[in-house]
Amino acid sequence: MAINTDQVLVSHSEIEQMLERLSSEINRDYGDEPLVVVGILTGAFIFTADLVRRLEMPVIVDFMQVSSYVGEFSTGELKIKKDMSYDIKDMNVLIVEDIVDTGRTLALLKELLLKRQPKSLKICTAFDKPSRRVIDLVPDYNGITVPDEFIVGYGLDLDGRYRDFDDIRIVRKE
Ligand code: IMP
Ligand code: MG
């Protein structure tokens, strides 16, 4: 089976416009208050790097690597592959994700991080696929809403590949 990634869904210039809009919303909302930005590895590494360079408040950049899986008797469990290294108690925290799909990963992550008593906790995603949601989760900052297609590029992968594309492409298996 061949993989075709010819179809561009979001161009690089649309991504740049999205970064400008999101960063001005975040700059407006937090003002000069320090912000801990938690990028979710691996998919959000490019988005996090692009976003933090447009933020104007003092920023601490940290990363977590997590995955969610649905157990036989549970709605979902979070597996932490890498925890963040900064203590977020009484800090404003912004989770930065590549894409929200079912919403499971972020719902579980939010629950976990709230136990650490941050001053505030919000979610910023580059892409949102609301048609796939199984858990009621609305990102506080949403870049671009995408249809129910598997997409790659700008950090998003298929089996580790295509993260380096500077635009978003639809995967077709043919
Ligand atoms: P969920 O919201 O818990 O279902 O998981 C979201 C995660 O699934 C994202 O962080 C991505 O790693 C992955 N994912 C979901 N949709 C796509 C896609 O279209 N392309 C690449 N990865 C995706
Ligand atoms: Mg991911």
Plain-language structure description:
The chain contains three helices and nine strands, in the order E-H-E-H-E-E-E-H-E-E-E-E. The protein has 174 residues and is of the alpha/beta class. The chain has one domain: 3-Layer(aba) Sandwich (Rossmann fold). A six-stranded mixed sheet has the order 4-3-2-5-6-7. Strands 1-9-8 form a three-stranded antiparallel sheet. Helix 2 links the parallel strand 2 and strand 3. The model has no long low-confidence stretch (mean pLDDT 96).
How is this structure best summarized?
Helices cover 22% and strands 36% of the residues. Strands 4-3-2-5-6-7 form a six-stranded mixed sheet. Strands 1-9-8 form a three-stranded antiparallel sheet.
- Strand runs, count: 9
Q: Which fold does the CATH topology refer to? A: Rossmann fold
Instruction: List segments where confidence is low: pLDDT < 50 over at least 5 consecutive residues.
Output: none
| Spatial shape | globular
The CATH architecture name reads: 3-Layer(aba) Sandwich
Sheet/helix structural class: alpha/beta
* SSE order: EHEHEEEHEEEE
Q: Radius of gyration in whole Å, from Cα?
A: 16 Å
Strand content: 35-45%
The end-to-end distance, rounded to whole angstroms, is 6 Å
Q: What ligands can be seen in this structure?
A: inosinic acid, magnesium ion
Mean pLDDT: 96
Output the number of helix runs.
3
- Helix share, percent: 10-25%
* CATH class placement: Alpha Beta
Estimate nothing, just give the exact number of structural domains.
1
Strand order of the largest sheet: 4-3-2-5-6-7
For the largest beta-sheet, the strand count, sense and barrel status come to: 6 strands, mixed
